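Name: SGNH/GDSL hydrolase family protein
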Amino acid sequence: MALEAIKRDISAKQLQDYVIVLGDSVFYGSPGKSEDAFTAVIDKELTNEHPRQIYNLSLPASQIGDIYAMLLKLDQYGISTNHLIFNVRYASFVPRLSYESALFWWLDDLRSVDPIAYQRSLPSEETARPNNLYVKFKGELEQVILPYYRLYAYRDYLNEALNHAWARGTGGVIPSDELGPSIPWYEKDTSDALEQLEIKRAFSDAPFDLSERNVDIYFLNKIINHQKMKDTLIVMTGTNHSLMKSFIDMPGYQENAKRINEYLSALPVQFLNLEGKVPDNLFTDHTHLLPEGYRELGHFVWEAFTNKERIQS
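Structure predicted for SGNH/GDSL hydrolase family protein:
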């Protein structure tokens, strides 16, 4: 398994201060190439004087619960999370539908390492699932087919990432692994995308519950407890304000964003809010970035992570 390979790599290099990166499709670098991901930018441009090994284990569609489960998996392999960077975004705190699980990738793994958290992650009302053929098929796909896909997709992704890291270090050629073309959002027809229910839900202006009644807050607090006395940075990745103006101008959205910022700022770990920091012209859609945008992200994150005052605190 890829985590075994990472463990061997750490042992062979006798690494002590390596950095683990966990997150969703933004931290993964979608839709572009791995060589344009923000961690690749850090590796190429920002660590020359003080080399630092970075293991980016982010995956598209990862939820906060997935990040917690991965921390426990890393513990099992003896891989330190003493230096951790992970991301959240506005949509991370949107209330879940009653038939949605709190994890996308690692639900079965969580059952074995933290049964109590596993029970909390399950859908609250399975019978509340809408009764139509499409949703029934989608549910069967998620429960029956995707677990096998996720297992192999993740294994292949990590193995490929390690192969790419080896190729970069030895001057080898890295094949293209982009998930899709990186086209500026303003060169696309975005009208249909903005009408998708998933997008509308992700930018909901309904009041957020930032107590542990919200399962994502529950898992965030589990992460914070796991990372006590460890070097941890939470990054709030931002939104394309020009594209999503009709959503983010809503008073409810503004109030939710304000409360999220206050909540994350009060946690006993460092917090970097990048909302509105990356220029809108560097986005490819509502939240993902062009290579130039990921370069900006890399500089923002690494400057915050290596800030001397932050480290001393």
